[in-house]
């Protein structure tokens, strides 16, 4: 079963919502930076989860870019 972030990213890709994906990426990156700058507690687990989510978002952005390129190629042909 896909995770929540995978379902969200899939929906954004299906709707071709690059802005939504970009905002989701920026939010996760800010969270990662904030957690990595903290001390006094072991944040390795949430940091790892956020890094995994960032990877899923990056894959979604790549799919969206590939879809756009494929659409442009078929449109000009």
Record keyword descriptors for this entry.
77 residues; mainly alpha; 3 helices; 83% helix
Strand content: under 5%
Radius of gyration: 15 Å
H/E order of the elements? Answer: HHH
Number of strands: 0
Poorly predicted runs of 5 or more residues: none
Task: Tell me, briefly, the overall form.
Answer: elongated
| Mean of all residue-level pLDDT scores | 91
Give me the number of helical elements. 3
What proportion of the residues is helical, as a percent range? Answer: over 70%
* Domain tally: 1
Class by helix and strand content? mainly alpha
Largest beta sheet, briefly? none
Distance between the termini: 38 Å
Write structural notes for this entry:
The protein is mostly helical and 77 residues long. The protein has one domain (4-76). Helices cover 83% and strands 0% of the residues. It contains 3 helices and no strands. It has helices at 4-14, 18-37, 44-76. α1 (4-14) runs parallel beside α3 (44-76) and α2 runs antiparallel to α3 (44-76). The longest helix is centred in the C-terminal third of the chain and has 33 residues, at 44-76. The radius of gyration is 15 Å and the shape is elongated. The termini are far apart.
